[in-house]
Design brief:
Blueprint lengths: L1 H17 L15 E6 L3 E3 L2 E3 L2 E7 L5 E6 L5 E10 L7 E8 L2 E9 L9 E5 L3 H9 L3 E9 L3
Antiparallel strand pairs: 1-4, 1-10, 2-3, 4-5, 5-6, 6-9, 7-8, 7-10, 8-9
Length: about 150
C-alpha cells in the first residue's frame, strides 16, 4: 500500500510539472531572460515609482514574476506578468509603457528568440491597483523604448 501512495504522489508531481505554463519555462537565446533598457522618464512598475535611468528585467524567483532592477541605486520591484505567445515573429526587444495623464506605467516586454522552438513572446505586466485607477480616469497612450538582451 505504501508503494501505491508513493507512485501516486510521484505521478501527481510529474503531472504538475508537465502542465506548468510555457511562460514559466521561458529562456531567451538559451539563457535566462535578462533585458536591459533605458527609461527617459520616471515610471511605475506595479505601484512602485522608479526614476528615469537604466534598468534590467530578469525572471523572478517564481513563475509569472519579473524583477525590474535599476542599474544604479537600490530601486527594485517584483511585478507579475502573463506571457502571450506572439502570433508573428518579433525581431527587436521592446519595452512598452502606458501613459495616463502625467504617469507612466510599465506595460510589457516583447522579444523574439533565435531558437525555433521558443518563438516570440510578449510579457504583459498585470496592471496594479494604481494603474487600474489611472485607466478609469484617462485613456492610455502607449509608447515603446528599445531593449537589449544582456548576459548575466
Amino acid at each position: 500500500m505504501k508503494n501505491f501512495w508513493t507512485v501516486l504522489v510521484l505521478g501527481g508531481l510529474v503531472a504538475l510539472v508537465s502542465v506548468m505554463p510555457a511562460a514559466a519555462q521561458i529562456t531567451f537565446n538559451g539563457d535566462e531572460l535578462n533585458v536591459s533598457f533605458t527609461a527617459p522618464m520616471a515610471f511605475y512598475a506595479g505601484d512602485t515609482k522608479m526614476p528615469a535611468g537604466s534598468y534590467h528585467i530578469i525572471e523572478g524567483v517564481g513563475p509569472g514574476m519579473l524583477v525590474v532592477k535599476a542599474d544604479k541605486g537600490k530601486q527594485e520591484v517584483i511585478v507579475p506578468f502573463d506571457a502571450i505567445e506572439s502570433p508573428k515573429p518579433i525581431k527587436n526587444i521592446d519595452v512598452s509603457f502606458n501613459k495616463y495623464g502625467n504617469d507612466e506605467y510599465l506595460n510589457s516586454v516583447a522579444f523574439g528568440s533565435i531558437s525555433t522552438t521558443q518563438g516570440s513572446w510578449i510579457l504583459k505586466i498585470r496592471p496594479s491597483a494604481g494603474e487600474q485607477a489611472a485607466a478609469k480616469a484617462a485613456a492610455a497612450a502607449t509608447h515603446k523604448v528599445p531593449g537589449a538582451s544582456t548576459k548575466k
